[in-house]
Amino acid sequence: LVEGQWDSKTKNVTEGLRKNTLKSGERVVRVDNTEGKPSHTRFKVLERFNDCSLVQASPVTGRTHQIRVHMAYLNHPLIGDQSYGGRPRPPKGATPELFELLRSFRRQALHAVKLSIAHPITGEMMTWQAPIPDDMVAMTHALREDTKANPDIDR
């Protein structure tokens, strides 16, 4: 789940990523097409809400914080990503349920539904799947209800 409305159904992001260490000692990753490592993420919009979008991210490469940094680079940070996007701000006119969920959401709204990798020795494809966590199901439901309750907001 990301902040804002996407202007297209799909997007490919190929910005290079470079790890940095802040004076505080916190490690962050920044877009850097000069010294950064090549990275590629495919994004597909699954559903649009008022001021948020449900997006499927498919990383082609596997860089640290790749999805989070690419989203922030596109000005669509993950909901709840304090390192790359700040605290979520409920949109004007948000339903009380959505307002409370956004205010209390304590993590990034990012979840790997499916992960597939080739086994390093046999080459056999291995796949794991995990259901969407309850807090993200509740957030998606609240976003849908808010969109129904506030249909005049530009999407």
In terms of topology, how is this protein built?
Layout: E1 2-3, E2 10-13, E3 17-21, E4 27-31, E5 41-49, E6 52-59, H1 66-73, H2 96-104, E7 114-118, E8 125-129, H3 134-149
Antiparallel strand pairs: 1-6, 2-5, 3-4, 5-6, 7-8
Helix pairs in contact: 2-3
| Number of separate strands | 8
Shape: globular
Class derived from helix and strand content: alpha+beta
Radius of gyration: 17 Å
For the record, give the distance between the C-alpha atoms at the N and C termini, rounded to a whole number: 15 Å
Helix/strand order, N-terminal first: EEEEEEHHEEH
Q: Helicity level, as a percent range? A: 10-25%
Discrete helix count: 3
Strand order of the largest sheet: 1-6-5-2
In what range is the share of β-strand residues? 25-35%
Largest β sheet strand count, sense and barrel closure: 4 strands, antiparallel
- Uncertain regions spanning at least 5 consecutive residues: none
Overall pLDDT confidence: 91
Quick overview of this protein structure:
The protein is built from three helices and eight strands. It has 155 residues and is of the alpha+beta class.
Written account of the structure:
The protein starts with a strand and ends in a 6-residue tail after the last helix. The mean pLDDT is 91. It has 3 helices and 8 strands. The strands form 3 sheets. It has a 4-stranded antiparallel β-sheet. A hairpin with a 6-residue loop joins strand 7 and strand 8 (125-129). Helix 2 (96-104) runs antiparallel to helix 3. With 155 residues, the protein is an alpha+beta fold.
